[in-house]
Design brief:
The complex is a heterotetramer of chains A (about 210), B (about 400), C (about 280) and D (about 210). Chain A has about 210 residues and is an all-alpha fold. Chain A has a domain at about 135-215. Chain A has six helices and two strands. Chain A has a two-stranded antiparallel sheet. In chain A, a hairpin with a 2-residue loop joins strand 1 (about 65) and strand 2 (about 70). In chain A, helix 2 packs antiparallel against helix 3 (about 75-90). The longest helix of chain A is centred in the C-terminal third of the chain and has 44 residues, at about 165-210. With about 400 residues, chain B is α/β, with parallel strands linked by helices. Chain B has three domains: about 20-140, Immunoglobulin-like; about 145-170 and about 360-395, no CATH class; about 180-355, 3-Layer(aba) Sandwich (Rossmann fold), CATH 3.40.50. Chain C has helices at about 5-10, 10-30, 40-50, 70-85, 100-115, 130-140, 140-145, 180-195, 205, 210-215, 225-235, 240-280, and strands spanning about 60, 90-95, 120-125, 170-175, 195-200, 220-225. Chain C has a six-stranded parallel beta sheet, with helices on both faces. Chain C contains twelve helices and six strands. Chain C has two domains: about 5-30 and about 245-280; about 40-240, MTH777-like (Rossmann fold, 3-Layer(aba) Sandwich). Chain D is extended, with a radius of gyration of 26 Å. Classes of the chains: A mainly alpha (about 210), B alpha/beta (about 400), C alpha/beta (about 280), D mainly alpha (about 210). Chains A and C meet through helix 2, helix 4 and helix 6 of A and helix 2, helix 4, helix 6, helix 8 and helix 9 of C.
Chain lengths: ~210, ~400, ~280, ~210
């Protein structure tokens, strides 16, 4: 048996262990479920380390080299790798209850930075551009439906007034659009899950057993 | 009648210079050989200026010129315009690129902000170069404001001011109106039914972490539900998938019992941590449904694929089910398998309505009035577009 | 016990078995149903098609994890085959740590099959963390985000990367993701830098991306295995996507039948119970 | 130091990142560019916190002799073997190395199979729980069935109208509804981000002083 077949068989056995859950919860399923937690954590640790932390932090700080170019000890580039690296290490203070509060410093920079950089692009992508795309001339049935549908949906999620009168009518229209939209999501979600099953069956039949055309 | 061909001829001649605009751009490495041995005429009216765009840090300079006399006219053998850049006058400097025949514009995107540059354009017919035309010095100006993003700034500021005003008003105890969400009535009815039947209520706060805003919203609603069940002495079972959520839920339910004067009926065994693993958690909750037969199942919080497994078993067991989540992809399953579903933002609105917490109310009211503004702007856009006033739409154009 | 009671009490493992049979049989008895191409897929194909050969590269961000592999890997393979067939250079990267192994196996596999040279026709950058920060960073300078490729070669030593600085030199960026990374590319590459973006997402996410497609924020959209199948039809190289469509057809039909049957039995049971309650009263 | 400094750092970082969007000046963009790298580095260290927590949880389970501690050993063994192969095996993460093979043949099949279980559960729920009891649910199910048919080749075979109807559902009612949700959720995201930057929302700091 070649190397390749052994590995594929391991994959197939693990796949079948997961499917055994359909009969009922059992130790094979639990084994696979726990194994993947450990394996994936280990995989991520190695990838983060060698693909990011080594070239962007460790080598500039200790090897004085960044992207194939030498950098100066205590020069700007050196500090620019060292400081965020130290901030990152400070996060681990949370495992020492006495110093846990130090971990909030890098967390503050991180949380604030990410919150701030999202503000304007989100406004632009989710509000402005959508508004612009929906300011359609009311010349065709499609356009009218798009404008009325968006209006209805926005009003359905408007909480500062009771849904009475005109507002109530639009909210009703909104719910109709929402339900058809959710129907589309439903259909697509079903499609998604089935594709995943097809992919796994294809793996078992074609890649492992070589039964149904490679 | 014989005038017709002549008019056609004139029109065609006039249209000729425009042809390159419609023609397929030839790949640059295929050069057409010169039809003569005379160098092409140089460009005229060469101008260079700082260019402002969406990422303008002063690194872009735009060049414009008038076409060489031999481009599509005269000898009609121009292939391309070569662009050179130098920091000293009277030196050709380095090539920064080229523009194909028929084009009157080149954008240099590699300039250094603030450095004075001289640009030289040479016309090439594939073998010979024209005499140079030079312009300069020109500097790329680094700007302090991005004019194309004015609309983003204005709308963002309006929204932030709205949120902050409403938050402050709520802090001062102003009575901010939020309509009652019909879903809350459905929750109360379900709990009422369970009380009548003398069976427990099951409350699943999702499988999100404690910092997930859906989990936080859910805990606010749990507090409301726990008060009702404590008053009627109906058992309330809360299964959780996260240890931290379990301790938070314990606090909430205990507090609710204390508030309605029933601290003794609080049963800590009913707040349970089952499993962190998604499907194992769903399986364990389904076990509770089948063994302890709750009459009302409430699923409020962040749900992923397990929504389906929970709602199916609950439906089979014949419980009244009310769900609420902002996970759009799970909503369809809840809508079709539950008696009532709080859709998306309704979950947050219900939580703000019940808790009256200023920061929740501020966000909710701010978003509400922003929606009105958006509807108004869209309506204005439609009307002004109809009147051919394009400036309005252009103001909101960011690309 | 009437028919509807019996029907509604059937053990669900019979339904599981029916699904199992419905997915396996088409593998042995292919129906070979034709796949029709839709606009969002055509849009992405056209965008890739319009990239000039051996010039500025396509950026392909393989951001998926194993959980969505059967839907998204066929897309990656089809797009890579399309680009390599047209001699379009490709930069491959990933924003998901598990994407590292998956991107590597996709790009290396197709490159070997189509005899493409690493460093000249494609480059594999590997993984970079932080989602929005690196997407924004690529708009400033690719070298700041990836000082070197996945194998430690500095970018300045890679022939294909000569003169490629940032989004200005990338005609199209495609993200293949089963999570919010696809949206992040719209927020942080499309909006601030005007970068042309295309996306391949799972079918679960696809319907939520139609507003972006409509507003021109996406050049094209592949949704799930069906999207991959359409792309395979367009490049005339049918693979796992098209192959899966037979089983997909059969199971969809089965599920619709189950929904209809379930509802008919449910309403029959309900009206019978109501009638009984009326008679009792 | 304990609460004020992190809130101040959060405020400065947030305001700078928000404001730089409108300032193309190269001095601002230079700082911005460096700050992006800082964020990436802190993100990487933050992500790896999860690994330490994982070890902690399972170590405690084993030490406290929890009932299912056998599976905690499985988790730690998986983690340990990957670290061993990734850091110490020759050619550690090259394609075809033991490290890569473990990923491709253990992690990939398990994770990929996990969610395919849902195909079975959806089928079972379709039969036993998806009911057209209300007008809303009826509309939803009808739209769902059309879309399910319209997106597979067999739908085209039954009638050309089905893919057409699917296209219409996706690009008209679905588009309008999803756009409404998108705007609402977008505003919610921005309100949350604003509250974080201004220190109104400080759940990220956790409890204590």
């Amino acid at each position: 048996m070649s190397h390749h077949i052994i590995w594929t068989t391991i994959g197939a056995i693990l796949t079948l262990s997961i499917y055994s859950f359909l009969y009922k919860d059992n130790p094979f399923y639990k084994f696979a479920e726990h194994l993947v937690v450990g394996i994936s954590a280990g995989y991520y640790l190695v990838i983060y380390t060698f693909n990011f932390i080594v070239p962007n932090v460790a080598r500039p700080v200790f090897g004085l080299e960044l992207g194939g170019e030498a950098i100066r000890f205590a020069g700007l580039e050196w500090w620019m790798a060292l400081i965020p690296g130290l901030l990152g290490l400070l996060l681990y203070a949370r495992f020492f209850p006495k110093f846990a509060w130090v971990g909030r410093w890098p967390l503050g920079i991180y949380v604030g930075g990410y919150a701030g950089l999202g503000l304007s692009p989100v406004m632009q992508a989710r509000v402005l551009q959508q508004m612009e795309a929906n300011a359609l001339p009311l010349t065709s049935l499609t356009n009218i439906l798009l404008v009325v549908g968006l209006l209805g949906t926005l009003i359905y999620f408007f909480f500062s007034m009771r849904h009475k009168g005109v507002l109530g009518v639009f909210a009703r229209i909104g719910i109709v659009f929402l339900m058809v939209g959710f129907g589309a999501s439903f259909g697509y979600t079903v499609m998604s899950r089935i594709s995943l099953l097809i992919g796994r069956v294809d793996f078992l039949l074609s890649d492992w057993l070589h039964l149904a055309g490679g | 009648m014989d005038r017709f061909p002549r008019i056609l001829l004139i029109v065609l001649t006039l249209a000729l210079p425009a042809l390159p605009l419609f023609a397929q751009v030839p790949p640059p490495d295929i050069e057409i050989a010169a039809v003569d041995s005379v160098a092409p005429a140089p460009v005229t009216g060469l101008r260079a200026h700082d260019y402002v765009d969406n990422s303008d840090a002063g690194d872009k300079i735009e060049l414009t010129w008038e076409l060489s006399a031999d481009d599509a006219a005269g000898a009609s053998d121009v292939v391309r315009y070569e662009v050179f850049r130098s920091e000293i006058e009277d030196a050709p400097g380095d090539s920064v690129g080229f523009a194909l025949a028929g084009f009157e514009r080149f954008l240099d995107t590699t300039a250094e902000a603030g450095t004075p540059y001289y640009y030289t354009v040479l016309v090439s017919d594939g073998t010979l170069l024209s005499s140079p035309t030079t312009t300069g010095p020109v500097r790329g100006v680094s700007n302090f404001f991005q004019p194309s993003r004015t609309s983003v700034l204005v709308l963002a500021l309006v929204f932030f001011v709205l949120v902050l005003i409403f938050t402050r008003l709520a802090e001062r105890g102003a009575d901010l109106f939020v309509r009652r969400i019909p879903g809350l009535n459905a929750i109360e009815e379900a709990v009422g039914r369970a009380t009548e039947m003398g069976r427990p209520v099951l409350y699943v706060p999702g499988i999100g972490e404690i910092d997930n805003i859906m989990t936080i919203a859910s805990l606010n609603i749990l507090s409301h539900v726990a008060k009702i069940t404590a008053r009627y002495e109906t058992p309330l079972i809360v299964p959780t998938a996260r240890a931290v959520v379990m301790s938070a839920a314990e606090e909430v339910v205990k507090q609710a019992h204390a508030e309605v004067g029933q601290p003794d009926t609080y049963n800590p065994d009913n707040i349970r941590y089952l499993s962190d693993a998604q499907f194992a958690f769903a399986g364990a909750v389904n076990g509770i449904m089948l063994r302890e037969k709750p009459a009302a199942n409430l699923y409020l919080g962040a749900f992923w694929a397990e929504s389906l497994l929970l709602a199916e078993t609950g439906f089979e067991a014949g419980a009244i089910q009310v769900a609420g989540t902002a996970m759009v992809s799970q909503l369809p399953f809840f809508v079709t398998a539950c008696d009532y579903t709080l859709l998306g933002e309704e979950l947050y609105a219900a939580s703000a309505y019940l808790s009256k917490e200023p920061k929740l109310l501020g966000g909710l009211k701010g978003s509400d009035w922003m929606k009105i503004l958006i509807i108004a702007l869209m309506a204005l856009g439609i009307v002004l577009n109809r009147l051919n006033a394009s400036w309005f739409v252009e103001f909101f154009h960011t690309q | 016990m009437s028919w509807y009671d019996k029907l509604l009490q059937v053990d669900r493992r019979w339904i599981f078995l029916a699904i199992g049979v419905a997915v396996v049989v088409p593998f042995f008895v292919p129906l070979g149903l034709p796949v029709i191409v839709t606009e969002p897929v055509q849009g992405l194909y056209d965008a890739v098609e319009s990239i000039p050969p051996n010039d500025k590269p396509l950026l392909l961000s393989i951001d998926y994890a194993p959980a969505t592999l059967p839907e998204l890997e066929p897309m990656a393979l089809a797009i890579l085959r399309h680009a390599f067939r047209n001699d379009v250079n490709v930069i491959v990267m990933t924003l998901h740590p598990a994407g590292y192994g998956l991107a590597e196996r996709a790009v290396r596999g197709v490159a070997e099959e189509m005899e493409q040279v690493e460093g000249e026709d494609y480059v594999f950058m590997g993984f970079t963390p932080g989602v929005s920060a690196p997407i924004l960073g690529l708009g400033v300078a690719i070298r700041n985000v990836f000082p070197e490729d996945a194998y430690g070669t500095p970018l300045d030593e890679i022939p294909m990367m000569e003169g490629i600085r940032n989004y200005d030199d990338i005609p199209l960026a495609i993200t293949l993701a089963g999570w919010s990374a696809a949206e992040a590319w719209i927020y942080f590459a499309r909006e601030p830098y005007g970068q042309q973006v295309g996306a391949g997402v799972t079918a679960v996410m696809a319907t939520d991306y139609y507003p972006y497609l409509d507003a021109g924020q996406l050049q094209g959209l592949l949704g799930g295995m069906r999207g991959a199948a359409e792309y395979e039809v367009l490049i005339e190289r049918e693979a796992k996507g098209v192959k899966g469509m037979d089983s997909q057809s059969v199971i969809h039909l089965l599920i619709i039948v189950l929904i209809v049957l379930g509802n008919v039995a449910y309403f029959a049971q309900r009206s019978a119970r109501r009638k009984m309650a009326l008679e009792d009263a | 130091m304990r609460r004020q400094l992190p809130l101040t750092l959060c405020f400065i970082a947030g305001v700078f990142m928000a404001v730089q969007y409108f300032i193309p000046h190269w001095r601002v963009q230079d700082v911005y560019d460096r700050f992006l790298t800082w964020l990436q580095i802190i993100f990487a260290f933050a992500f790896l916190l999860g690994t330490v927590s994982l070890v902690k949880v399972h170590y405690h389970k084993i030490r406290n002799r929890a009932a299912d501690r056998g599976f905690s050993w499985v988790v730690l063994a998986g983690l340990g073997s990957m670290i061993g192969l990734g850091f110490f095996a020759p050619g550690h993460n090259d394609p075809g190395s033991p490290f890569d093979m473990m990923f491709q043949n253990v992690q990939v099949p398990i994770e990929a199979t996990m969610f395919s279980l849902l195909a079975f559960y959806i089928a079972s729920a379709a039969f036993r729980a998806f009911r057209a009891r209300t007008l809303e649910a009826t509309l939803l199910l009808i739209a769902a069935c059309i879309v399910m048919l319209g997106r597979v080749p067999i739908g085209d075979l039954i009638s050309e109208r089905i893919p057409e109807a699917t296209r219409w559902i996706l690009t008209v009612p679905n588009l309008a509804a999803k756009r409404g949700i998108m705007i609402g959720v977008g505003l919610g995201m921005m309100a949350t981000a604003l509250k974080i930057v201004l220190g109104i929302e400080r759940a990220w700091m956790g409890g204590g002083d």
